[in-house]
UniProtKB/TrEMBL annotation:
Composition bias type Basic residues, residue spans: 7-22
Naturally occurring in which organism (per UniProt): Pusillimonas noertemannii
Region feature (Disordered): 1-27
GO-annotated cellular components: cytosol; small ribosomal subunit
Gene assigned in the entry: rpsT
Pfam family, one: Ribosomal_S20p
Entries under HAMAP family matching the protein: Ribosomal_bS20
Organism lineage string: Bacteria, Pseudomonadati, Pseudomonadota, Betaproteobacteria, Burkholderiales
GO molecular function: small ribosomal subunit rRNA binding; structural constituent of ribosome
Gene Ontology biological-process annotations: translation
Name of this chain's protein: Small ribosomal subunit protein bS20
Length: 87
């Protein structure tokens, strides 16, 4: 248990930050799933549109350092390659 005022404040901040980061991570995962679903459906136009939105979300989450920039680049690259491979 936090004994000092500073430690209590840091604990409060930690809870709030964790809640926000969890929300952002959930948004990231949802956007990636939407792209994958569009790819499985085989609709290139929808997949391209959803990929553009997902790329924005991925970059936003990486800028806030919730995920590493290389992980963000890997996600974007693999999703873009999968959309491009659609006939």
């Amino acid at each position: 248990m936090a004994n000092t005022a500073q430690a209590r404040k840091r604990a409060r901040q930690s809870v709030a930050r964790n809640k926000h980061n969890s929300s952002m991570r959930s948004m990231l995962r949802t956007s990636i799933k939407r792209v994958r679903q569009a790819i499985e459906a085989g609709d290139k136009a929808v997949a391209t549109e959803v990929l553009q939105k997902a790329t924005s979300v991925i970059d936003r989450v990486a800028d806030k350092k919730i995920i590493h920039k290389n992980k963000a680049a890997r996600h974007k690259s693999r999703l873009a390659a999968a959309v491009k491979a659609l006939a």
